[in-house]
Amino acid sequence: MAPPPRAPIPVPIMGLTGASFGMIGGIMAVTVPQLLASVGAPESRIAEVTAFAMSPGMCAFLLSPVLDLWIRRRTWAVLLALASTLFTGAAFLSLRNIPLFAPLLFAGFASIVLSSAAAGGWLGGLVSDHDRSRLGAWNTVGNIGGGGVAMVIAIPLLRSLPFELGVVVLLGLTLAPLIPFLWLPAPTSDAKLSHERFLALILDVCALLRRPAILRLLIVFLAPAAAFALTNTLGGLGGQFHASERFVGMVGGLGVVAAGVLGSLVVPPLLDRVAPVRLYLLIGVVGAIFTASLLLLPRTPAVFGLAMLGENAFQSAAFATGLSITYRSLGEDNPLAATQVALLLAAANAPIVYMQMIDGRAFGFGGLGGSLRADAGISLLACVALFVALGLWRSGAAEAGPPRSTATG
User: Fold this and answer.
1) Residues 114, 67 contacting (CB under 8 angstroms)
2) 22, 142 in Cβ contact below 8 A?
């Protein structure tokens, strides 16, 4: 079998194409609530719509097998990114019609999630196993940076231009990071549009879910070892640290982007020295200790800034490591590459959602200290349990013979 074509452009540029996903995510998380508030929607409704719009991050993987069928993954990535802009644009133009607005946003975010999975399955096959760590790190940089850019420019664009034109310009900018796709090779899939092939694909997906290496990665990602869900709630807790709204906005904008980029870029050098899953868990342990240490510090604006920057740096490092693990797990010429990427990324997103709920409940019982204790304690226990499980898995693998893949080393 001929080796897959290799990328003719630098790995960082390939990774930065993830900015398209980050920009749509930033629009969903920040711009959509602002627009809803501007038309008088109540806070409860805003929260419901935003949560519904972003829920494809956990469930869109159910559609991911089609990304490995019929057409090339690059084509899927581009078409779905275009669909995301069309659905999101239609939603913005239906802002006052919530029953239509929310489903259109859901479709827009589902499209960009699937586009990202298709791109991951394709790009992961264009680089060496070593460069997959750099690809994961730079993809995280693109994601964070794209989200930061969208949060800064979206509302000014929509307010300074006629609304319809602002929507077109804003969503057109979300496609700009995908321009490097034009210079990248796209291997032809051997999948064909046929009933028999689709049934075979379903059987292949079932076989994938039974693979021990994939099951272990699913366990690692589904556990709250490196969720850092506090990054999604700290922005609303500035008052607990006597921080002004302006200070919260400054730290939550450029500060968080800088911390995220730094956290992402320290990962590739570390992966040269530490096995990927072990590094993922170590990030969880150190991050949990950092979270717990906040209990000992005074509630001042400076400590709020430290908490925001630290939590986001650890979350970015964990996400970059998780992406590297995901890309390394693909192997060469994987017929289910996009499906596998979507499945593992959905698993990695799940703890952020349920830990945010747990942290919120803990805040109700013990205030900020309750949230910090719950987040740090649960994460630390999960990391310890997974370190034990990792040792048992390695012992079992040693008895069974040399491993066939280093993805979970």
Assistant:
1) yes
2) yes
Averaged pLDDT, 310-337: 81
Q: What is the pLDDT of residue 165?
A: 93
Distance CA 239, CA 243 (A): 6
Q: How far is the CA of 22 from the CAs of 61, 97, 140, in angstroms?
A: 18, 26, 9
| H runs (alpha helix) in 161-211 | 163-175, 195-209
Per-residue pLDDT at 191 = 46
Dihedral over alpha carbons 382, 316, 9, 151 (to 10 degrees)? 140
The pLDDT of 27-54, averaged and rounded, is: 76
The correct CATH number of 194-409 out of 3.60.15.10, 3.90.1300.10, 1.20.1250.20, 3.20.20.70 is 1.20.1250.20
Q: Where do the structural domains in the chain lie, given as residue ranges?
A: 1-191, 194-409
What letter represents residue 118's amino acid? Answer: A
pTM above 0.85, yes or no: no
pLDDT, tens digit (0-9, with 9 covering 90-100), for 260-299: 888 888 888 888 888 888 999 999 999 999 988 988 988 8
Give residue 14's Cα distance to chain centre. 16
- Maximal CA-CA distance, the chain: 67
The pLDDT, as a whole number, for residue 75 is: 85
Domain 1-191: CATH superfamily is: MFS general substrate transporter like domains (1.20.1250.20)
* Topology match between the domains 1-191 and 194-409: yes
**Which residue in this structure is represented by tokens 């390695």?**
394
14 close to 189: Cβ distance less than 8 angstroms: no
Q: Which of 67, 70, 84 is nearest to 119 (CA)?
A: 67
